[in-house]
Write a structure and sequence with these properties.
The protein contains 6 helices and 5 strands. The chain is α/β, with parallel strands linked by helices. It comes from Macaca fascicularis.
Length: 186
């Protein structure tokens, strides 16, 4: 792909900020494909290559593609910490519970088997805090870079369902919709 390759609207946000949810809604309502940075990062790590999470990588991506819109989901870290640390898993089945909105019938116990639930290492409070700090340190220069280029649009809030209508309205001015019936509802 040369420098004329056309990309891309990018969605940036901390782990747990709702990037996946917003991205899937974007692909439902607009003629765009979803490439998850997490999936791309894991794939690139397997192949020993890199993915844009730093300023140098963002600049390299910009040389290969035309980035015309970057959506930044600005969700307070305390909200993200609550979301991620509320997640508990039944390891044998992969069932996921969330203490806030999908709790098990008995705290710490799988509803179907009665076996104990575990919290992933990534979801433990001390790990979440480290992940969010690393995200902030790495991403601040990337956001500043896209801001200077005039392609960054930031949406702030605490709930994806409340942020989404604003993202949707913004993208309506930039991207063709997949159908006339597409709407703001999730």
């Amino acid at each position: 792909m040369g420098a004329s390759a056309r990309l891309l609207r990018a969605v940036i946000g901390a782990p747990g900020s709702g990037k996946g949810t917003v991205s899937s809604r974007i692909t439902t309502h607009f003629q765009l494909k979803h490439l998850s940075s997490g999936d791309l990062l894991r794939d690139n790590m397997l192949r020993g290559t890199g993915f844009p999470r730093t300023l140098a990588q963002a600049e390299a991506l910009d040389r290969a593609y035309q980035i015309d819109t970057v959506i930044n989901l600005n969700v307070p870290f305390e909200v993200i910490k609550q979301r991620l640390t509320a997640r508990w898993i039944h390891p044998a089945s992969g069932r996921v519970y969330n203490i806030e909105f999908n709790p098990p019938k008995t705290v710490g116990i799988d509803d179907l088997t009665g076996e104990p639930l575990i919290q992933r290492e990534d979801d433990k409070p001390e790990t979440v805090i480290k992940r969010l700090k690393a995200y902030e340190d790495q991403t601040k220069p990337v956001l500043e870079y896209y801001q200077k280029k005039g392609v960054l649009e930031t949406f702030s809030g605490t709930e994806t369902n409340k942020i989404w209508p604003y993202v949707y309205a913004f993208l309506q001015t930039k991207v063709p919709q997949t159908s006339q019936k597409a709407s703001v509802t999730p």
